[in-house]
Design goal:
- The protein is α/β, with parallel strands linked by helices and 395 residues long.
- It is 40% helix and 19% strand.
- The strands form 3 sheets. Strands 5-4-1-6-7-8-10-9 form an 8-stranded mixed β-sheet.
- Helix 3 crosses helix 4 and helix 10 runs parallel beside helix 11.
Length: 395
């Protein structure tokens, strides 16, 4: 058997530099989690040993360059690109996915807006993905679809093929009261699309139960112990909390970066690592740290927050506003409490390579993670796994 992994983006981001296409590994929880899993494939005869990862390469590619890009991503990550126009992807990714689905599924309805053009393009993109998959599909392939960008895809594939289809949602599935805020055009269609799967996975038991509740209320379909009978197949709904490769984080040699904790006379480090997003509670965390400094002057000069914020969705106005708010807050805290010898908040707006990140995990005395809503926060797991001396506190 071969495993077909289908996600909105490829595990490599392709960009053009001096007329040449360059492929670099993408950041993000889905890619890091799946990459660790894929390394384990083929270790025994019973397991699937071959896979192909399909998705958008991250930019619009002219038809004459399609073969060049195909070859590039096949070599670097055993992947196959699905070519889409940038305007279509913007309407889907920045539009329907991040202005409708993401805020609703994370319980921020005040950030959500529905645009019929976005929904039309979302359906169109799922159709293109379906056609591309059918063009390479083998009879014994196992299809594994990932995340909220492709919720219609399992249903489209089910109409054409009998291959096993799995779907995994990497974000929360909300309560029915929140899900029903999706307009009627998309509310039932998204669930119908998911029901094309043989197996649907969620991070937590709650998300699984909320999904089953939505299926009952919107589609009128009962479940028995998480199984739903469809005319031509049975859908099984299960909980699979995503994990990390513990050994990679625990045993990695982080040289040339330092990984030693501060001495008794040096300030303690509170580490904060997140992708820029309103669901991560970064602004709330900073306000909490500011309140701590206000109420505990005895800690001035003895503690600092090392805040790493990974840039994300820079084209969405909501995210630009969060970035502006963060910049202002960091400036205010450092301006009010800082001195020549002490900076309360060290602010890094960047994505760090694994070695450097693990070094900072090991240097910190506290990891402070305060998501308001999260699918499955892997930073928390990575922090604990990285601590070789077993000294450090996760909050």
């Amino acid at each position: 058997m071969r495993l077909l992994i289908i996600s909105n983006r490829l595990p490599v981001a392709v960009h053009k530099e001096n007329g040449k296409y360059i492929a670099e590994k993408s950041a993000g929880g889905l890619v890091s989690g799946m990459s660790d899993y894929l390394k384990t494939l083929g270790k025994s005869k019973e397991q699937i040993s071959e896979y192909l990862w399909m998705g958008w390469p991250g930019l619009s590619v002219k038809p004459k360059d399609h073969d060049t890009v195909r070859q590039k991503v096949k070599e670097s990550f055993n992947a196959a690109p699905i070519f889409l126009e940038k305007e279509l992807m913007d309407n889907v990714y920045l539009g329907f996915c991040n202005k409708t689905i993401w805020p609703l599924f994370h319980y921020f309805p005040h950030h959500a807006r529905f645009d019929m053009d976005f929904w039309t393009d979302y359906q169109k993109m799922n159709v293109i993905f379906c056609e591309e998959i059918l063009s390479v599909l083998r009879p014994d392939d196992v299809i594994w679809v990932h995340d909220y960008h492709l919720m219609l895809l399992p249903g489209m594939l089910r109409e054409k093929v009998t291959n096993p289809i799995g779907f995994f949602l990497h974000i929360p599935f909300p309560t029915y009261e929140m899900y029903r805020l999706l307009p009627s055009e998309s509310r039932a269609k998204a669930l119908h699309g998911l029901m094309g799967s043989d197996l649907i996975g969620f991070h937590t038991h709650d998300y699984s139960q909320y999904f089953l509740r939505a299926v009952l209320r919107v589609l009128g379909k009962e479940n028995h112990m998480g199984r739903i009978d469809m005319p031509d197949h049975t859908v099984e709904v299960e909980t699979f909390p995503m994990g990390i490769d513990y050994d990679k984080f625990h045993t990695m040699d982080v040289a040339p970066h330092s990984s030693h904790k501060a001495g008794p006379d040096e300030p303690k480090m509170v580490l904060s690592v997140d992708r820029l997003d309103y669901s991560k509670g970064i602004v709330n965390r900073l306000k909490g740290f500011e309140l701590f400094l206000q109420e505990h002057p005895e800690w001035h000069g003895k503690v600092y927050m090392n805040m790493i914020v990974v840039p994300s969705r820079t084209g969405v106005s909501t995210y630009q506003q969060i970035k502006k708010r963060l910049d202002e807050l960091v400036g205010r805290i450092n301006g009010h409490y800082g001195s020549i010898t002490w900076t309360p908040v060290v602010y890094q707006y960047t994505s760090l390579p694994h070695k450097e990140l693990i070094a900072q995990y090991r240097m910190s005395d506290v990891a402070l993670l305060t998501p308001l809503r999260d699918g499955m926060n892997l930073v928390a797991k990575e922090y604990i796994a990285s601590l070789t001396d077993q000294k450090g506190v996760l909050i």
